[in-house]
Amino acid sequence: MCWTVAxxxxxxxxxxxxxxxxxxxxAPAVAPVNGPLPVDAFYDxxxxxxxxxxxxxxxxxxxxxxADGTAILIHDLQADKSAVALSTDNxxxxxxxxxxxxxxxxxxxxxxxxxxxxxxxxDGEIRSWKYSKFLMSMDRDGTHQTxxxxxxKHTWSHTQHNYVIKLMDALDKDPDHILALAPSLAGQYAVxxxxxxxxxxxxxxxxxxxxxxxxxxxxxxxxxxYRATGSTFIIEGHAPGETKWSEIARIRAKDFEKExxxxxxxxPTDTPGxxxxxxKPKDPSEGAAxxxxxxxxxxxxxxxxxxxxxxxxxxxxxxxxxxxxxxxVCYWVDTYTCAxxxxxxxxxxxxxxxxxxxxxxxAPVSFSNDGHWWLLDVSGPDDPxxxxxxxxxxxxxxxxxxxxxxxxxRLGPMDRxxxxxxxxxxxxxxxxxxxxxxxGPLPLVVLPHGGPEGRDYFEYDLVTQFLATRGYAVLQINFxxxxxxxxxxxxxGYRQWGARMQDDVDDGVKALIASGRVDPKRVCAxxxxxxxxxxxxxxxxxxxxxxxxxxxxxxxxxxxFLKWEHSMSEDDSSRYSxxxxxxxxxxxxxxxxxxxxxxxxxDHYGPPVLLIHGEDDDIVTPDQSKIMDxxxxxxxxxxxxxxxxxxxxxxxxxxxxxxxxxDIAGFLNAHIxxxxxxxxxxxxxxxxxxxxxxxxxxxxxxx
Length: 703
Known about the structure:
This protein is of the alpha+beta class and 703 residues long. Among the domains are: 51-209, Methanol Dehydrogenase, Chain A (8 Propeller); 414-557 and 597-671, Rossmann fold (3-Layer(aba) Sandwich), CATH 3.40.50. The chain is 17% helix and 35% strand. It contains twelve helices and 37 strands. The strands form eight sheets. The chain has an eight-stranded mixed β-sheet, sandwiched between helices. The two termini are 32 Å apart.
C-alpha cells in the first residue's frame, strides 16, 4: 500500500516470516540530478504532512501538496485504496492539518490569504490583503462540509475578517463538539465550543486582555490558563467546575517559550482535574533531568515523579488511544527515543528503531484503538522526514510518503562525535560531511548552536545540510551550558561565556583536526544568536586557527548587552536576573565580562568577519553587530556588515534566508575553498526493499 501522488516516494518492507504483501506501486521516476542542491530545494514546501490514523485503524488522513494546490487524502487500509476527499485551488486557501472526530468525520485547519495588487499584476504593489485561519469539518468522503464558528449575533466570514482560530481540544469523548481559541466580539481571545455538524459556536470562557491560553483535562474541562504580566508568565489553575483562579507558578516569558521550559503542562492524564507536568529539578536530590509529575487541580498539589530513571530531559508523553493514560515518554539522547511501560510495546519500539538502523528519529504520531496500527513520523540527519505505518500483527513497516522528495538521497551523512575537553570532561557533538566527499581532510565550519540553553540533535538541520552540500564538513557541539543533558550540564555554562563554554568549542575543533578528518588550514566558525557570539570569540581567542568568522545576530559586547537588557527591565526583574545568572553581574564581574567580549580583542583580531543582523531584532539588537563592525574597522581589520530590513531575531522569511545563505556560501568559498565532491545522482524513485524483520528485531531486543 502506498500513496501514489506525484513526487511522493512510496514503498513497503515486510517481516521475514509474514506472507508477501501486495506490491507497492512505484512513484514516477525523478529525473537524474547532479551538482549541489540549489538553495530553493531546501525551502520546498512539504509534499505530505499532518498524517493522522483513524481511531479504528482503517483509514489514514493526510494533507498532500499538488501542483494545483493542497488536498486532503484518505487511504483505506482494508481496501488499499486512496482518494482525495477535498482539494483547494492554490489561490487563496491552504489546508494546514487534519484531525479525526470518530471514524467518519474530520476537522480541518485552513489558512486563507487573499492579496489584491494594483492593476491586478501578481508582482505589483499590494493594495489590500485579507488573512485568516479558520476551521471546517466534513465527512470522511468530503461531503457535508461545514465552516465552524457561528453564533446568534454574527457569522464568521474568513473572506471578510482578519482573524485566527486555533484548535484547542478535539474533545475525544464528545463526538459532536470541539474546543477552539477564537476572538470574542471585544477582540480578545476566548474559548469556544463548536458543533462539528452545524458549525454553531458558543463562548464558554472569556480570557481578558492578558490571557494567552488555556489547558483542559481529560473531559475537556478548563483547568489551567496562562496570563502575561510584563516579562513574566503566570500559570493559574482551578478544579473543574470552579471559576476562581489561583496562581500555580511564575516563569520568565522567554523560558516559557524555550524548548525545555522549567515548568510545562504536558496535557491531560486519564483522571479528571489533573494534568501531566514536566518540571526541572531545583536541587540534586530531585534528580538530574526534567521529570514528569501529575498536578491535581482539585487538591492543588503536585505528586512525585511518575517516570523515573531517565538521565535526559523528557520532551513528550505517549498516551494510550481512547484514554490519556501514560504509555511511555520520549526524550532526546542523540536520536529521538521513546520508552514504553508495556514490555511488548517497548520491544516493538526497539525493533522499529533497529529496522531504521538506529539512525532515525522515530516519533509515534497515533495508534489505532486496538493497537494493530502505529502511525510513525520518521526523520534523520539526511532525511527531513516521512510517514510510516507499522502493522503490529504482520510486523510490516509501510512507507506512506516523504516530506521533501527533492532532498532524498542528496544530503550529507552525520556521525556522532565524542571528545575529551581540556579538563577531561567528555563532550558530545556531531559531524556532517558533504555527500560524495573525498576521504582526505575536508574544510570545516564549526557551528555552535544558539541559546545557549539549546542543543543540537542527531536530526535534519537545514543550515547544516546547506553547508555540507556546498562541500564543507560541519561540526556541532553540545558544549557545557546546553540543554537536554540535565540541569548540571546546563548550569556548568553559567557565567562561562568566553571561558569553559568556549573551551569546549575550540577543543572540539582541535580534536576533529587531530582525527585527520578535516584540514587545519581551512577552518571557519559560524553561528546564530549565541552561536554568533561563540563564532566571534573563536576568532578572537584563536586567530591562528580560524580563517573566517560568520556571526549572525551575535553578541559582541557583554557589558553593553547587559546594559541594554537592564534598560528594558527593572533591576530585580526575572528577565534581567536571568541574564545576570547566565552571563555575570556588571557590578561584580566587570573584568570577566570584558574578557568575554569579542570587542576586547579587535586590535589583534585575525580572521575576516561577516556580520549579519535583522534591523528589527529585539532579542539581540543590531547595535551588537554595529559595535563590532565599527571596532574592527577602526582597528583596520577585514569586516563586512549586512543589515536586513523587516527581519527580527533569526526566524526570517524564506527569501531573506536564501539570500543570506548564498551570501555566506560565497564568503566561505573565498576563505576556505570547499572540497570537490562527487554529487549523488538520483536515478529514480523505487519502492523500499525489504530490509530487516521488525518482528525479529523486536524479539532479539526483548528483555
